[in-house]
Amino acid sequence: HYADLTAAELYFDSIGRREDALQVLCGTGLAIQLDDGARANAKLQRIEHYLQDTTDALQLSKLRGTAALCAQVTRNPERLALEAEKNLVLCREVGEGTRLAGALILTSLTNNFLDPELARRQLAEAIRIAEDEGHPPTRDLVLTYQIWSDAVTGKLESAVALAAPLTCRLLDADRPMDVPSYNAACASIACLIFEQPEEALLWTNRLLERPQTHSLWGATLLFASAFASANEGESAARFMLDVESRLRRAGRSPWPDLLVPAIVLACRAGEPEKAAAWYAAIRGSRKPQQTFHSIAVYRQLRGLLSPAEKAMPLEDAGSAALDWCRSFL
């Protein structure tokens, strides 16, 4: 319903109902994370329009927070850091508990890589706020970011242990799947891919058995890595091609992220030279992964592989990897 919501927002703005326009624009901030980039860019342009003459601190915090979410989707780390920090300052000024917890989550996304200990303190503060507010859904959401923080910084056992109370909900087939349990299961899969590939594949299939409407492309990429680690090349290739198609349609490059499951598959399929060459291409490009799902797996690959002596261009490596993966179909 993106087009309908955009039309409603534009209408409210045109007749001077600014608060209603912002409610529609910012109320879909979390949903936009399912987008592959194009709609998030359009939303950022609308935010810029409103920022020109908005002075109310609460409204500004909503706009800055939504801008940070959009920057996360469009993989703009500089914009994410800027908007998240401004949002945090505004939320502390406004003093709304759950909104402040969300602001701390957003600032932790950048700090995970710049200052992991600061990120952990921010997430711990967010959990305390959620508990003080008596709001379990917010607490669970913050916990999933703490789980991913551990996953991308190499604290794999800690991440799996933290995820267990949330992932166990998925064992109840009658219970609807919620976002925290889904995200926690994805983080567990990322942590188990090399040490316990059968367990990672088990959780992957549990998620895929649930009704699917639309998934983050990072999760689809992770599923490809899980099938690759189990040496199920056909399934891995199908998920990889799905991610490539989605990102190409959005006008975005799938590299280097899409090379990660290809490297995993090459390792399992007895093709160490291919794995080393594609790994070297990622390292040589100095282009960061775009999602926690691939970062967590790639950082484990760094401890398992040595790169080839000469790195081929990233696009060439990606094309070669996709051609090879298609051979499994």
Could you explain the architecture of this structure?
By secondary structure, this protein is mainly alpha-helical. Helices cover 73% and strands 0% of the residues. The chain contains 17 helices and no strands. The protein has helices at residues 2-14, 18-27, 38-51, 57-73, 77-94, 97-114, 116-132, 136-152, 156-167, 179-192, 197-209, 217-229, 233-249, 259-268, 272-285, 292-301, 314-326. Helix 5 packs antiparallel against helix 6, helix 6 runs parallel beside helix 8 and helix 10 runs antiparallel to helix 11 (197-209). The longest helix has 18 residues, at 77-94. The radius of gyration is 20 Å and the shape is globular. The two termini are 35 Å apart. The model has no long low-confidence stretch (mean pLDDT 91).
List keywords for this structure.
single chain; 329 residues; mainly alpha
A few lines on this structure:
The protein has 329 residues and is mainly alpha-helical. It has helices at residues 2-14, 18-27, 38-51, 57-73, 77-94, 97-114, 116-132, 136-152, 156-167, 179-192, 197-209, 217-229, 233-249, 259-268, 272-285, 292-301, 314-326.
Order of helical and strand elements: HHHHHHHHHHHHHHHHH
Sheet with most strands: none
Radius of gyration over C-alpha positions, nearest whole angstrom: 20 Å
Per DSSP, the total helix count is 17
Write the layout of secondary structure elements.
Elements lengths: L1 H13 L3 H10 L10 H14 L5 H17 L3 H18 L2 H18 L1 H17 L3 H17 L3 H12 L11 H14 L4 H13 L7 H13 L3 H17 L9 H10 L3 H14 L6 H10 L12 H13 L3
Helix pairs in contact: 1-2, 2-4, 3-4, 4-5, 5-6, 6-7, 6-8, 7-8, 8-9, 8-10, 9-10, 10-11, 10-16, 11-12, 12-13, 12-14, 12-16, 14-15, 14-17, 15-17
